[in-house]
Amino acid sequence: MLPSFDPQQCPVLSIDDHLPPVPLDRLSAPALRDRFERSPVWQPEHVADRLQLPRAPVHASVLVPLVLRGDETMVLLTQRAEHLSDHPGQISFPGGRAELEDLTPITTALREAEEEIGLTRDFVQVLGTLPHYITVTGYIVTPVVALVQPGFSLRVDASEVAEVFEVPLAYLMTPAHHRRHAVGEGDNAREFLSMPWITQAADGSPKSCFIWGATAAMLRNFYRFVSA
Questions:
Q1: What is the mean pLDDT of residues 101-106?
Q2: What mean pLDDT do residues 180-205 have?
Q3: Residue 140 belongs to what H/E stretch?
Q4: Could you tell me how far CA 194 lies from the centroid of its own chain?
């Protein structure tokens, strides 16, 4: 059984401010299209969580939606509902497990995004996929990266998603915002990344969105991909 802990209370081992941010011109829509069309030689930094559940792995996909907001590219993220059995309350990409009728991981990601948050496919242009990531709960996740044109309307499935918000891609592609944490000891020791983001609540007060775990690891891999 996985140990329960509050990731925000885990000590910060280091901050990766020695690494350069991705230049803004590499985060534009044309540059991102070109990067996937002419992918460089690179290696993902993170491929799996340290701890694994003793069960057969389950294939899943997530959509990494890059929303084009004028001159700025934003990453659309969700906060999972608190009652879910896997990763309750965590910040994640829209997505879920593959179904028998899904032809490809891309099919899974598009279907799940439409079911979870109502993001319809006519606003989505898939760029490609990143290497899969194995979560601590036994999912083999394929990240599907896509550009999303503005003008869409969301219909959030409240049984799965508590909130939807956007974070500037440039912020997430700046390693000075990437923190390394540790939890556990001995054979149960585990390190993980976080990318804390401060936004505003409905009443205008500051609100912390703690991006960590698998979502942060996949974003870090995306950083390695676009900066290679």
A1: 96
A2: 82
A3: strand 139-148
A4: 11
Query: What is the C-alpha to C-alpha distance for residues 228 and 226, in angstroms, rounded to an integer?
Result: 6
Q: How far apart are CA 62 and CA 93, in angstroms?
A: 6
- Three-state secondary structure string covering 151-210: CCCCCCCCCCEEEEEEEEHHHHCCHHHCEEEEECCHHHCEEEEEEEEEEECCCCCEEEEE
Instruction: Report all structural domains of the chain as residue ranges with CATH numbers, in order of start.
Output: 11-227 (3.90.79.10)
- Please choose, from the candidates 77, 195, 54, the residue with its C-alpha nearest in 3D space to the C-alpha of residue 136: 54
Do residues 60 and 99 make contact, with C-beta atoms less than 8 angstroms apart?
Answer: no
Q: Which residues contact 205 (CB under 8 A, 6 or more apart)?
A: none
Residue 97 scores a pLDDT above 60: yes
Both tokens assigned to 160:
């799965």
Q: Are strands 139-148 and 58-69 parallel, antiparallel or unpaired?
A: parallel
What are the tens digits of pLDDT across the range 146-159? 999 999 999 998 88
The residue among 201 and 54 whose pLDDT is bigger is: 201
What pTM, to 2 d.p., does this model score?
0.93
- Pairwise CA distance, residues 180 & 119, whole Å: 32
Residue 4 banded pLDDT, cuts 50, 70, 90: low
